[in-house]
Design a protein that fits this description.
Low-confidence stretches: 1-17
Number of strands: 11
Order of helices and strands: HEEEEEEEEEEE
Oligomer: single chain
Largest sheet: 11 strands, mixed
Radius of gyration: 16 Å
Number of helices: 1
Shape: globular
Strand content: over 45%
Amino acid sequence: MRRLFLVAAFLASTCASAQTHCLPGETVLLSGRVGTLTEGGFSGEKILSLCADRSSPPFDQVSYRFGPQGVVELEFTAPRDGFFFADDQSPLPRATINSLYFRKGRITYAVTECMGMHCGMRGVKLMVFDGKRKIASLDSEPDRFEVNTSVYEIKGRIVKTRQSGLNYDEN
């Protein structure tokens, strides 16, 4: 019985850690599949990961990695590639959208998380903007997206507070 429990625990930890692009020695801040969420369910094969050099802030290094399992299509590591910027907006009373974003040329990549009573089942989102025009929005997989550190809590010398001027509200 004990052996069966150990095997089940190993498989569970393997499955949970399999949905990350974080490297050995890095701390998973948040990680999981992102895609499209409809009434029919969830579909998405890309993994979004935010990884840090230590388990609690302030962080000296944070990496954003995105792509299918085992293939990083886009990586941004602060401070090596620049800074992350933190932003928060309150589109409704009792709802705050916290974001951590970075820019590559004209494109802005924002990882957002809604906190409060009027957020519904929003969870973590990845939004991509060309200038101020939203060109992509991906939802986190419900109940399977690992969030160990809220977007709001990701702080350190590599994160600057700045109002983005972007519209994160989906309504």
